[in-house]
Design goal:
- Helix 10 crosses helix 11.
- The protein folds into three domains: 95 residues, no CATH class; 89 residues, Lysozyme (Orthogonal Bundle); 90 residues, no CATH class.
- Strand 2 and strand 3 form a beta hairpin.
- 50% of the residues lie in helices and 11% in strands.
- It is extended, with a radius of gyration of 34 Å.
- The chain is built from 13 helices and five strands.
- The longest helix is centred in the first third of the chain and has 26 residues.
Length: 298
Amino acid sequence: MANRIIQTIKNAYKIARITLAAAILGSIATGTGVISYNIARPTAIYAQENPEKGTRENATTSRTEEPSELEQEVELTIQPEKANERTLEIKTKKEKTQSKPQPQPKPTDYEELIKKYASQRGLDANLIKAQIEQESRFDPNAKSKSGALGLMQLMKGTAKDLGYNHEDMLIPEKAIEAGTRYMQRMYNYFPGTRISEEERTKLALAAFNAGYGNIFTARKMIRKSNQGEKTCEITYHTKKGEKKKKTVNIEYLKGQSEDSLDGVSMALPLVTGENSSRETKTYVARITARQKEYTKYR
């Protein structure tokens, strides 16, 4: 009779343990969690399973039962923590399968494409390489919060204007081809006969980042200020995309040069805001610094 009672208790314990494991697995359906919990075994059952040890004290816990169907789906590791407790650690099969690390993109991955299309557009390949590193870290699948895609992070409207589908920007060769075409267009907005090559590069990069229209407006304000005007009406876009106009004080811009990034950077906050204008200046500085490094070590 005592043996039957003990066997009944053992069966009830197994059912309770499996039910508990199932509940925990349900809460970690994604298969990434590791959960530890304690199970206290009745002393009578422990003594029945380990007659040579008699009691729990100073005993090493072991597992001898065959795994159930549920347990075959998980890894169960039982380890003693205290004399009267067992710790059960559950790991799903998904966690046990380690995914292989993906290789990181490198500048050399697109070296030939960069040289090819930079040469076609009369651009410095090291500049384009530095620009791609800044824009996407050489990740061909890069996507920004604003929706820009690919190695050179072109927006949908820009890609369409250049004759591409936006999804084409996820193809490295098309992304580089389109990006160099757009960069050449930015260069052409600034006449090299009047502007030094260094400043022309900086202004072209600023236009690539902030939009040529915004750079054009900033230069226009500097020009008017140097002509003696104290205010200027500018057009801007709200966060909702609405086009509006406002009048701004430009008197402080007198003496600045519209043909230098430093001068344009003084006026740009009136157009794009303080944060965006600061980001544009940082964008240009980082790319030109990397361009020099690539040129030095090529």
